[in-house]
Amino acid sequence: MNFAPFIVVTPIAGVFIDRWSRKKVIAFVDFMQAFFTVILIGFFVVDVFNPLELVAIILALNTIRATFGAFHTSAVDTLLPIMVPKEQYSRINGINYLVNGAINIVGPLLGAVALSLLSLQNLLWVDVITFLIAIVPTLIIFIPEVRKVILDKEEKPSFRSELREGLKFIRETPGLFALLFVFAGANFFISPFFIQLPLFVTSIHLGNESHLAFLMASQQAGMLIGSTIMSTWKGFENHARGVAIGLFLGYIGFMILLLAPVGSFPVISIGLFITGFVLPVANVSSEAIWAVTVPRELLGRVYAVRRTLAQMTAPVAMLLSGIIAEIIGLYSVLMICLVLGMLVLAYSWFFTALSQVEKIIQETKEKEESIEQVQSTPQ
Prior knowledge:
By secondary structure, this protein is mainly alpha-helical.
């Protein structure tokens, strides 16, 4: 109920992001998310619902928040290509992953400590307070109005035609669909490792909560270090190679995890550290390709379609991995995911346009520019 509305609403949100002020969208949806948190607090305060009813209310409100979250993510995704010079994009995106990695480590720790000191309904006020803090820089920062300038010069297209433009651009730009395909495959085959990690630790390696916390910390530490490196390094000259190397080494990390002897948590932590370390490399390299390829006026729609198609495979994998693991065993499911994931990556690199995506895009742009120059030359 959290993931489904995000997947469904994101392509629609992308159209409006290209039409509306990104700053206003971010401020409004953040406000609405905080508003529904206040409503949730009110249900706790009233305390007239039985536990089952309260769970249903929480799920419903979470679904509404996820809908607003789709607009927030669609707006934020397009800020860096608009605001950051192309030659600095990989570095700034690396900083972005670094900050998010730090939040993913510190946030749960602070939440656990706060939950031991405060009641749940009081702890929820933190969400409201942090909104009030975040809204200030949001209103101050200048964000260019790309779409507004274009609409002043041409007739406003229909919503349906704009909705199709994102998918059309990806389909017609050589190499982009191959790049999208490899990430959709990676999300499908990697998601079971993360969603089944607690069961992997307890049922296969006979571990406990402490072991799980140690392994998750190792993965996040790898992500922090990888993000730090990407924030100071411009990245691979061939960004497609960065994508392939990052995903390949990520699968190697999962291979170490699967081949570790029972109870060898330090070995498993090495595998998760490697995976965490290289995922920012793959993601930042991919972001650099999209940032220099997609026209500013199409960023909202293209990025929304891209995120939807790349991530819609993850919840499917989450559901299937549990069902199939009940039949053939968890270890077998994870091993199949590892093998198929590496095969999809190899196929994408050797038999699609992935390896040449930047070269193909550049050649296509140069060809289109030369045609435009010929057409504009007086005959």
